[in-house]
Task: structure prediction
Amino acid sequence: MANIKSAKKRILVIEKKTARNKAIKSRTKTETKKLIAAIKEGDKAKAQELLKVAVSKIDSASSKGIYHKNNAARKKSRLTNLVNKM
Result:
């Protein structure tokens, strides 16, 4: 355990940031899973709506530094291709 006051503070700050990042990443994964489920069901209209939500969540996570911009672009591209192939 840290003894110095600034080190203790850093530990607290990192815990908060980790929790925030984890929540955002989890939300993004949930939306992606919903989209993939809609694709498997074959519901194109629902899939297109969920694609908008998933892309929005991925963009939001990317802007906060949770995903690298290229990683976010790859995820969006793959999801879009899945919907377009329906």
The first helix runs from residue 5 to 41. Helices lie at 5-41, 44-63, 69-84. The mean pLDDT is 94. The radius of gyration is 17 Å.
